[in-house]
Fold this sequence. Notes:
The chain is mainly alpha-helical and 498 residues long. It has one domain (6-497). The chain has 20 helices and two strands. Strands 1-2 form a two-stranded antiparallel ribbon.
Amino acid sequence: MNTAPLFVIIPLGTAFLVSLVGKYYKRSSDVFSNVACCILLGLSFYTLSIIRNIPTHLLVYKIGGWAPPVGISMVIDSLSVFMLVTVNLIAFLVTVYSVDYMNKYTDKWKFYTLFMLMLTGMNGVIITGDLFNMFVFLEIASIASYALVAFGTESEELEASFKYAVMGSVASSFILLGIAVLYSYTSTLNMADMALSLTAKGPAKILPFVSVLFLMGFGLKAALVPFHAWLPDAHPSAPAPISAMLSGVLIKSLGVYALARILFNVFGVTDVILSILMFLGALSMLVGVFLAVGQWDFKRLLAYHSISQIGYVVLGIGLGSPLGICGGLFHLFNHSIFKSLLFLNSGAIVYSVGTRDLHAMGGLREKMPVTANTSLVASMSIAGIPPFNGFFSKLIIIFACVQSGHFGYAFWAVVGSVLTLASFMKVQRYAFFGALGKKRQDVKEVPLAMQISMAILAVICLVASTLVLPAFSDFVTSAAAVLSGGKEYANLVSGAFK
């Protein structure tokens, strides 16, 4: 069975269902959303097993039976299914966490409706084989995320959401303009067909122009420096489950994945583009961590670290070597796990203590052991301390830099990791260790559903380290091979059309 359309149908249908009945049956929105995300996670692993057993490692679904490029297609390959597992794993654990956390907000059903629409958009971007439909799904996810950032309706949330919406609209304009220029040149919107058309027509002068448009557009979505201005306001202001989704998977699926897919599999990446990606990655890595070190607002500190860690991902992919791409994608997966966990930890502190200010915390390990221990695991993971998953992905990226002769980038990657460790030692010192203040004597651990989500993510931070072993590495290496293969993607997908 071709599972591709289900990744859009299930969350979209759930959003519709929750909007109809959630207002009248308050627990129904929790049930529908958690069941839907659980099914999507199961489908992701099922599709992964299917892809591995197909010689071409490719599933193509023709919508309405119309063969592309006339019709619209959905394409799942090893890279797509890697992203689907990542996105739907985080989405499921976030919905479990939201069961209790979102009780403090009114109209929880509106939250779940927007959440499922955002998930629809992310899954759609990952599986679409059509450039304009990628833009449509990107906008669905983006518009839902604008509303979710403002969900608390306080002045801080509304200001951050407005800034995010303006910057997101600018990004979308760049992307749409790039798509229009490409369509005028190739007369097709199907990505595989477009890649073949660009190859047949030879080097085109419009490609550098469109590449710059996409770098700016998707760079804004991914919050790469210098396109990062919206993120430090948007992530702290959103409810913790949304912060986890924004940092964990949204900026990766709408930004990094979409940009890499187009540059590598449609355009055929050039040395100039790779150099730009490496530079932007290293710049983001350093600027993000330097800005994070001086922060005392816990969620704002995490937001700046999102910029820094995305820098590692883009640096790895920008190296263009099989090892570099593998390291970049491995870090993308790892960052989704430990950064989502850190934002859920921050949400647990806000839920129990009512503050994001590290100065106002202290000694919380005594009252919130699950939150404290899972936060320690996530802190060690993001800092790259063995045996946690972040160590191995950062090590692969550093080795790839050395292998490619980019010793300067390897050095700065190490510096970024040391500063990250310093930053999270500060978090542990001021939030969880030290003496418990008199005002914090009544603090309690968060409800069970929130603890379960955090505990599972902490376990994955350890288990994901096994992905470096040959027996399990195919999950990452096969995804990296899709990008390394460049325009071979176009030949495989076009062959499946016939």
